[in-house]
Amino acid sequence: MTERPTAETGAPHPAPPLLVACDLVKRYGSVVALDGVSFAIHDGITGILGENGAGKSTAIKIFLGLLQPTSGSALVLGEDASQSTRVRARLGYMPEHDCLPSTVSAAEFLTHMAEVGGLPPSRARTRAADTLRHAGLFEERYRAVGGYSTGMKQRVKLAQALVHDPKMIFLDEPTAGLDPAGREEMLDLVRKTHREFGISILFSSHLMSDVERTCDRIVVLQGGRLVQSGEVRDFTAETRSVFVEVDTNRERLVQELERRGVRVTADAGGFRVEGPDESLYDDVRDAVVDADAPLRRLAPRRRALAELFQGDPTETGEMIGAALPDEGDESPEATP
Q: Cα dihedral sign for 310, 316, 321, 326?
């Protein structure tokens, strides 16, 4: 987070937040999409998580000035985006659904978007070419967008959000429809965008692994309410349990551990063990020897973001649901 010296003392203090939601409420008839939500987002990459209908897209559209809240306020760079063209010009938006013109080239489309963003024609053409190079589409820039693969179209959508050099961009499900290799390429591109250009990013996704690997902070919504927010590293910190994986004699090792009073739980190809103190490692060592179980991995276990949705509420705070639904489900928030 950027810090600036104060005029009075010269001591640094945190830069003001880029986005602030204060008691934000949005209703669509009888449906409450946002119910008194308050949070602040600073520089960096912030993930916004939640099942379909949780209010993610509604919050993004309010911050972009595309929707008016029923009550409460949403400030972007200290202003209401719906009332300030200057603020809206400093924002970029990558929508989830396919919205690209199929008959024009990527170069032509991005040049047009740069001009809409206020750049003169010559500068717009140069900026379009540079942005397509950043997105890995420079060699394909004169092809009609309709002939692009899904991954290439996703990169065009990201490029059009960047072409006018915004202060912040909003990405709505940027890996939607991509295979694992395409997802990783898109996540790399998102990280590269922030790292090289210093553009802050609000990353909306139902794929917790994408958020965990990409974002610095998270905001979690459920049923229109804020239920978690904070640094990703705080939610994925080491726990008091240890992850153990062995090659053979697994059942015998479990018996030896349980005989020593160690609690054992199956976990992702191995198991996690829990004990009262550091003597746990001694118990594991002795049990591995007595069970003649070749040890493949022994490490402090880290939480995953998925545990926010299925874990023990005593460890993760308020439990907020069983799982996130599959991509593509419809929700009330999609229709104003």
A: negative
> In angstroms, rounded to a whole number, what is the distance separating the alpha carbons of residues 280 and 155?
48
CATH 3.40.309.10 is right for the domain spanning 14-90+166-234 = no
Q: What is the mean pLDDT of residues 29-50?
A: 93
The side-by-side arrangement of strands in the sheet containing 270-274 is: 263-267, 270-274, 238-246, 295-302
CATH of domain 239-302: 3.30.70.100
For the chain, helix, strand, coil in percent to 5 are 35, 30, 35
Q: For the chain, first and last CA: distance in Å?
A: 34
Per-residue model confidence as pLDDT tens digits over 149-162: 999 999 999 999 99
- CA dihedral (170, 172, 178, 184) in degrees, to 10, reads 40
Q: How many residues does the chain have?
A: 336
**Does the model's pTM come out above 0.90?**
no
Alpha-carbon torsion, ordered 194, 197, 200, 203, to 10 deg: -40
The boundaries of every CATH 3.40.50.300 domain in the chain are 14-90+166-234
pLDDT at 327 over 50: no
Alpha carbons 41 and 176: distance in angstroms, whole number: 24
CA 273 to chain centre: 30
Q: What integer is the mean pLDDT of 49-62?
A: 88
List pLDDT tens digits, range 283-293: 888 999 999 98
pLDDT computed for residue 311 by the predictor:
46
Q: Which amino acid is at 272?
A: R
